[in-house]
Amino acid sequence: MALEQYIRDIVDFPKPGIIFKDITPLLASPKGTEECLQLLINSLKEKQIDKVIGVESRGFFFATLLAHHFNAGFIPVRKPKKLPFETISASYELEYGTDTLEMHIDAIQPGDKVLIHDDVLATGGTAKAVCELVKQLGGEIVQVNFLMELSFLNGREKIKEYDIFTAINY
Ligand SMILES: O=P(O)(O)OC[C@H]1O[C@H](OP(=O)(O)OP(=O)(O)O)[C@H](O)[C@@H]1O
Ligand SMILES: Nc1ncnc2[nH]cnc12
């Protein structure tokens, strides 16, 4: 079954006019999850990875699977005031206003080879902010990968200096 068939469109969620891409059917399917995971893994070939970042909250699921596969550490990037230790932060533009993401200050050592994972690349604001966090701590970004890309929003333009991989393209 094509991976797209595990993604459910929810019209007008969370706001009117948005078609929300629901990944819960994919997560509920061991076969779909395995196929998707293998696509992400194969895109990285035999690259060395020290840390895998998962972006709260839907980025956490596959990021932990990827970290386990690559024998790398899992690093959560979270919304403000969720992480208990000292943090660094990066802000990014939303449609109206700004939002902030945080990471623990000791999450990455200079020179670490870092894979960034999230479920969706939409406008790219989130991904760009995460890249900035990794750069602040001196990590080397090996790839930024996503389960899916909403390519009509052109989010990859914001992170074009990095290697980008998406399993599904809309
Ligand atoms: O490319 P962008 O326009 O920045 O959008 C993509 C981000 O939006 C969604 O997260 P959301 O903030 O809805 O959080 P959630 O995963 O906790 O639902 C999605 O999981 C990405 O993290
Ligand atoms: N349409 C969408 N569906 C799911 N997650 C998203 N994040 C940003 N836009 C989204």
From TrEMBL:
It is an enzyme of class 2 (transferase). Gene3D superfamilies: 3.40.50.2020. It catalyses: AMP + diphosphate = 5-phospho-alpha-D-ribose 1-diphosphate + adenine. Its main location: cytoplasm. Pathway: Purine metabolism; AMP biosynthesis via salvage pathway; AMP from adenine: step 1/1. Pfam families: Pribosyltran. It is found in: Cytoplasm. PANTHER family: ADENINE PHOSPHORIBOSYLTRANSFERASE. Catalyzes a salvage reaction resulting in the formation of AMP, that is energically less costly than de novo synthesis. Homodimer. This is Adenine phosphoribosyltransferase. It comes from Flavobacterium piscinae. The gene is apt.
